[in-house]
Specification:
Elements: E1 8-13, E2 20-26, E3 32-37, E4 46-47, E5 53-55, E6 61-63, E7 69-70, H1 74-83, E8 87-92, H2 105-114, E9 124-128, E10 132-135, H3 136-139, E11 152-156, E12 163-171, E13 174-182, H4 186-195, E14 202-204, H5 208-213, E15 226-229, E16 232-233, H6 241-254, E17 260-268, H7 272-284, E18 289-293
Helix pairs in contact: 1-2, 1-6, 6-7
This protein binds zinc ion (ZN).
Zinc ion (ZN) binds at residues 74-75, 201, 245, 249.
Length: 294
């Protein structure tokens, strides 16, 4: 179990709420990533675990039975996973984790600079034994027939001891792809911090009003979001920045398994809903996986 050596503070705004928020990642003595809402009278903890995921509409939100919620945990979760932190208490004085740079760079850099304790890293490995697949149809049965199988997330057993992720995502008619493997080596960690952590999500100008009316995207700007004006990205860092960001999201969402998933994850136009459902399916049958505590 590894936690942070000292408190790590963040302040910024939520990408959906647009509200200012302060957050501190603190050392903890129990395995798992736990949140405490410092702004609520109810200070019960909510664990960042797949069973607690209660909203997956353009973010991953966790909540407990006492109505304590935290939104948009996924980029912070990805940073904690790659930093090798599997135990932390995160205090937050609002409902949404700050978006900061739009990816995971700020989280990853500050957490690693603060230092990580020297316990055994990622001692809980979850080995995928059988294929598990989720299609859009299973989540949204009302989709028109031609769209029902046109997106999916799949977990397959892997030949190596890694989490191998392939993502395809279509934005404005163009398909983007990216691949990433995490095996705990410095090479895979550096690859994350250079090629995935800076990747941001996207927003379409045409959807702006629709989202604002639903209190979404209120904190989005050209620094933390790739802005599409019709079919043109105005400020992207890579041609496939969105596919890279999809992998970043998937790493964060897979860490709500509570461990290091060893398997091949394919995300074909996937999203947070399918990432969560694939974990629920994986854990619904003990023949699908094996947990190894090293
Ligand atoms: Zn994201």
């Amino acid at each position: 179990m590894r936690t942070v050596e000292q408190d790590v503070g963040f302040s910024g705004i939520g990408i959906h709420s647009g509200l200012p928020v302060k957050m501190t990642v603190r050392a903890y003595n129990k395995l798992g990533i736990f949140f405490r809402r410092a702004d609520l009278y109810n200070e019960t903890l909510v664990q960042a675990i797949y069973k607690n995921v209660c909203d997956t509409n353009r973010n991953t939100t966790i909540g407990n039975l006492k109505s304590v919620h935290v939104k948009t945990i996924e980029h912070l979760m990805a940073a904690l996973f790659i930093a090798g932190v599997d135990s932390a208490l995160i205090e937050i004085n609002g409902v949404e984790v700050p978006i900061l740079d739009g990816g995971a760079s700020s989280f990853y850099n500050k957490i690693t600079e603060a230092g990580i304790t020297k316990g055994k890293n990622q001692n809980q490995k979850i080995i995928v034994k059988k294929p598990v697949r989720v299609t859009a149809h299973e989540i949204w049965p009302e989709l028109p027939i031609e769209r029902q199988n046109d997106s999916y997330v799949e977990l397959l057993p892997s030949q190596n001891s890694a989490l191998n992720i392939h993502a395809d995502f279509r934005v404005e008619g163009k398909m983007q792809s990216f691949d990433y493997s995490y095996d705990g080596t410095q090479r895979s960690i550096t690859n994350f911090s250079q090629n995935l952590a800076p990747a941001r999500t996207f927003g379409k100008r045409s959807e702006w009003e629709y989202l604002r009316k639903r209190n979404m995207g209120l904190g989005a700007d050209e620094k933390n979001t790739v802005i599409y004006d019709r079919d043109k990205a105005l400020n992207q860092r890579w041609e496939n920045e969105i596919a890279r960001h999809k992998i970043l999201d998937a790493i964060g969402d897979m860490f709500t398994s509570g461990g290091f998933i060893v398997g091949n994850l394919t995300s074909y136009k996937g999203n947070h809903a399918m990432n969560n459902m694939v974990l629920r399916k994986l854990f619904s049958n003990s023949e699908n996986y094996a947990i190894i505590n090293t």
